[in-house]
Amino acid sequence: MTESIAIRLRGLSRHFGDVVAVDRVDLDVVDGEFLTLLGPSGSGKTTVLRMIAGFERPDAGSIELAGVDVTQVPPYGRDVNTVFQDYALFPHMSVLENVEYGLRVKKVPKVERADRARAALDSVRLSGYEERSPSQLSGGQRQRVALARALVNRPKVLLLDEPLGALDLKLREQMQVELKEIQREVGITFVFVTHDQDEALTMSDRIAVFNNGRIEQLGTPTDVYEHPATAFVAGFVGTSNLLDPAAAQLVLGRSGTWSVRPEKILVHVGDAPVPDGHHRLNGTVREVVYVGMSTRFVVDLATGGSLMAVRQNTDASHDLSHLRGQTVCLSWDPQYEYQVADPT
Ligand code: ATP
Fold first, then answer.
1. Sorting pLDDT into bands at 50, 70 and 90, what band is 330?
2. Whose CA is nearest to atom 11 of ligand 1?
3. Which of 76, 165, 264, 272 is most exposed, with the fewest beta carbons within 10 Å of its own?
4. Domain 241-340, what fold?
5. In whole angstroms, what is the distance from residue 51 CA to residue 13 CA?
C-alpha cells in the first residue's frame, strides 16, 4: 500500500520585498505523521505554515491537501487548524466553553458540542477541568486547552507554530512527550514549527531543516543527527564539530570537510590506550564544563581548529577541571565520522 499524502508542497515561494522568505520548497507530509519544520529565526518556517493554513498567499508554487489543490482556497475552506504560541483563551469563559466555542460558531447542536468538547479535553488529559476559568490553570494546562480547542474540530491536519515557546523548560519537556503521545493517539497529521533542535529530535517522525527559505535536509531525527547532509545541518542540529579539509586529509586521509559528534569522541589522558582501529588526534584541553549528567571538553587540535568531546559522568562525580591545559589524545571509531558538504 502506498502512503497517502496529507500535504504536498511544490515549488512554494514567498517574497517580502527583497526578502526571499520561502524559496522553491518541495515537501510531502505523510498522513498521520508528526513533521517538524526546524530552523533558525527568519529561515521561513512560519511563512510555510501560514501558506499551508491559507493566511499567506504564495508568489509561486502549489499546495495540495489530501490530493486537492487548495492554493487559491481561503483559510476557512481548508481542513486544517492552527495552534499558535500566544494561544488567546477567552478569559470570561470556562475551559469547556472555550473548547466548545468553535463548534458553537458552526452551529453544532448543544449536546454534540458538549460531548465533543469533553472528548477533546480528555484527549489532552484535562478531564475534570471543564468548569475552571483559564486564570485558574497553569501555562501548560492553558496550552492544552488551546490544543483541545483545535482538536475538537477534528481537522485532518494540525499546524502548530512554536506552541511550547512560552513555557518554562521543565514544563516544555513534559509537554513535548505528551504532545507526541496525544498526536499518536488522535492520529492527526501534525506540522510543528520550532527553532529548538532538542524539541524537534524528541517529537518528530521526520524533520525538515530550514535555512534561508529552503529545506536543507528532510529525514528522521536519527538521519538528521547522525548523517547531517550539510555543515549547516551538522551545526544547527547538535554541536558543530568540524574537521576542515586540511585536518581531514592529515588525520583521516580523506578529502572534504568531515565531522564527528561529541559523544562519539573518547578523551585519553596520559598513556591511556586508544582502541584499535580508531582515528586519533592530539590536542590541548581549552575548556572543561561540568553539566551534571556529562562533562564537555573543548580541545584545541594540534592540526588547528577545535573539537568538542562529551563524557558521561557514569562514575563518581569527580571534578575534571584539572585537565584544562593538558595535552590529551582524542579518538573515535571511523564509522562515526561523516562528510558534510556545503550546498553551492
Ligand atoms: P521565527 O522562528 O523567528 O518565527 P521563521 O523561520 O518562522 O522565523 P519567517 O517568520 O517565516 O521565519 O520569516 C522569514 C523571513 O521573511 C524573515 O526574514 C522575515 O523577516 C520575513 N517576513 C516574514 N513575514 C513578513 C512580513 N509580513 N513582511 C515582511 N517580511 C516578512
1. very high
2. 44
3. 76
4. OB fold (Dihydrolipoamide Acetyltransferase, E2P) (2.40.50)
5. 10
**What H or E segment, with its residue span, contains residue 248?**
none
Which residues, judged by CB distance below 6 Å to any ligand atom, belong to the binding site of ligand 1?
Answer: 16, 19, 21, 39, 41-47, 195
pLDDT band at 254 (very low <50, low <70, confident <90, very high): confident
Q: Whose CA is nearest to atom 31 of ligand 1?
A: 16
Indicate the average pLDDT of the chain. Answer: 90
Is 5-236 in CATH node 3.40.630.30? no
CB atoms within 10 A of CB 214: 18
CA-nearest of 194, 188, 189 to 208 is: 194
Contact 255, 311 (CB under 8 A): no
Please report where in the chains the cell 469533553 appears, as a residue.
Answer: 118
Reported pTM: 0.85
Cα distances from 97 to residues 111, 284, 293, in angstroms, run 13, 62, 44
